[in-house]
What does this fold into?
Amino acid sequence: MADAGVASRRKCEEIIAAGRVNVDGVTVTRPGFKADPEKSAIEVDGRPIHAARRVYYLLNKPKGVLSTTFDDFGRPTVVNLIPDEKRRLFPVGRLDEDTEGLILLTNDGELANILTHPRYGVEKTYSAKLRGVITREAVEKLKKGFRLEDGRARADRVTVTYRGKTASSVRMTMREGRNHIVRRMLAKVGFPARHLRRDRIAFLTLHGLGKGEYRRLTRQEVQGLYKHAEQTQKQPARNKKSRPNL
It folds into this structure.
């Protein structure tokens, strides 16, 4: 319902609980009820609703823009940067206000879940300019991993791209997206980021996009994201065999 533009997800739950939704002529009051709008007749207050056509945008988020759909204080959001799109969009994951770079916006909840859920392990690559000259020991710590306040964190790959007298730069590839994870990891090893940009999600890059610019994903790119996630999905740990009774 939210994807069809009826209301926000929270408001849709209230509408369902109030008994205002019918699916194939039957009143539904359970918010978690599943129905396919392409196969079932769904009505809200007697009016039929239709699934919105799925759309996908790749945006080069500038610094100072929020990765959300709305801000109570009127600050600019990523949705504001795509003013001509009338369908309800939401960002896939988040970049903090001071971080620039690649972010996807869509109304496809399934793809958003695939790209952000740790189970799928979709790679995201960041470029960071650091305070101080990063040491080999710090790079090894980032790759080996360590505990943060919300659990263990580890970079898949770390490459030093610049070493100066008082500053340095690295490129880090991650398979998770906890809040401020890259900044927190760099600060933990003693080399906080003074500038951070996300350059890549899976095979998508910022090529050809200036700050604040965006483009639509092609059908092939969308299909490629689904396929990429299937290929990189982490296999569940095998259950240990229980000891047989003797």
